[in-house]
């Protein structure tokens, strides 16, 4: 339903890179260039400047972009309305997901959702909780799945699943498979997540409530992803605190072990976030309801050592 030349234009404008646009559209780079040139010939203006290996929008391109985005949204709205007239759900759905959810839960949620709503086109943006909430507030995604509090009044959250975070150490560590008092963490070297991470906020809050001040820990490394954090713990750079979902494979392989920390509670809720106000309509509303009703059923099952608490 959307003009294809405008779709190509939007992809190039989004990436400011013809190669990346061609990969997104599953076209050859010459085909993308041809579509852009045809649109420029139709309008009688240049839409992009190419100089010094960089691509930028011209003034005409900057002017056209919001209209192209509105036309795409209108086409998507029309498609969704036509399908809704027959009792179905269709359209585009942009989901933001913080890293633990995005890596370990979201693929199953999307697969289950698309079995029931096959006409919905899903795209995913990853990042930490803060980045996802900002993308939601800026309308870059329609729903967000987050691991920490939203900390914004213009965003509302609904919990959909409880998560437990565990302390992990390398297989040969003296604390492996042991129970330790929370006071033993004082002076320990830890691998932590970056500022803005929901996981980091939960760990810091839990430690403070258990009587361990964050500044009493030594930070061996700060990682910007859960996988990077786990690799650092495996390498012996410190202990770590991660979701039980994130460490399942390492526990099964025996490269990491769980430490039971007496007196430390790191339970948290995974939540789905939407903009404050009425419940979202269309695909976003359908996905929100699906997550709230079906997430527990679709979560991966714990196996082997991954059941350790």
CATH topology of the largest domain: D-Maltodextrin-Binding Protein, domain 2
Please report which band the strand proportion falls in: under 5%, 5-15%, 15-25%, 25-35%, 35-45% or over 45%.
25-35%
Report the structural category.
Answer: alpha/beta
Low-confidence stretches: 303-309
**Number of folding domains?**
3
Question: How many DSSP helices?
Answer: 11
Instruction: Tell me the helix content.
Output: 40-55%
Taken in chain order, the helices and strands follow as: HHHEEHEHHEHEEEEHEHEHEEH
Count of extended strands = 12
Give the biggest sheet.
Answer: 8 strands, mixed
Radius of gyration: 23 Å
Q: Give the overall silhouette.
A: elongated
Features:
42% helix, disordered C terminus, single chain, 8-stranded mixed β-sheet, alpha/beta, D-Maltodextrin-Binding Protein, domain 2, two-stranded antiparallel ribbon, 3 domains, 11 helices, 309 residues, 12 strands, Arc Repressor Mutant, subunit A
């Amino acid at each position: 339903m959307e003009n294809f030349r405008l779709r190509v234009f939007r992809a190039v404008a989004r990436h400011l890179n013809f190669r990346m646009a061609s990969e997104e559209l599953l076209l050859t780079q010459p085909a993308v260039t041809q579509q852009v040139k045809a649109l420029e010939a139709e309008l009688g203006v240049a839409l992009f400047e190419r100089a010094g290996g960089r691509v930028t929008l011209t003034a005409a391109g900057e002017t056209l972009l919001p209209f192209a985005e509105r036309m795409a949204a209108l086409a998507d709205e029309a498609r969704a309305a036509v399908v809704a007239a027959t009792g179905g759900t269709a359209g585009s759905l942009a989901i933001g997901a913080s890293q633990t959810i995005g890596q370990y839960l979201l693929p199953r949620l999307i697969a289950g959702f698309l079995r029931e709503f096959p006409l919905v086109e899903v795209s995913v943006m990853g990042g930490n909780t803060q980045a996802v909430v900002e993308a939601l507030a800026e309308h870059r995604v329609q729903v967000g799945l987050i691991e920490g509090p939203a900390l914004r009044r213009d965003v509302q959250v609904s919990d959909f699943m409880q998560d437990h975070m565990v302390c992990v150490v390398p297989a040969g560590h003296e604390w492996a498979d042991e129970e330790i008092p929370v006071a033993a963490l004082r002076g320990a070297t830890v691998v932590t997540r970056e500022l803005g991470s929901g996981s980091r906020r939960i760990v810091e809050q839990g430690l403070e409530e258990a009587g361990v001040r964050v500044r009493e820990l030594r930070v061996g490394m700060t990682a910007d992803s859960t996988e990077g954090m786990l690799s650092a713990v495996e390498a012996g750079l410190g202990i770590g605190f991660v979701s039980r979902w994130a460490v399942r494979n390492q526990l099964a392989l025996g490269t990491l072990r769980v430490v039971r920390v007496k007196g430390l509670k790191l339970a948290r809720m995974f939540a789905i976030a939407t903009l404050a106000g009425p419940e979202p309509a269309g695909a976003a509303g359908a996905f929100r309801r699906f997550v709230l009703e079906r997430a527990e059923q679709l979560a991966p099952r714990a196996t082997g050592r991954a059941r350790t608490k």
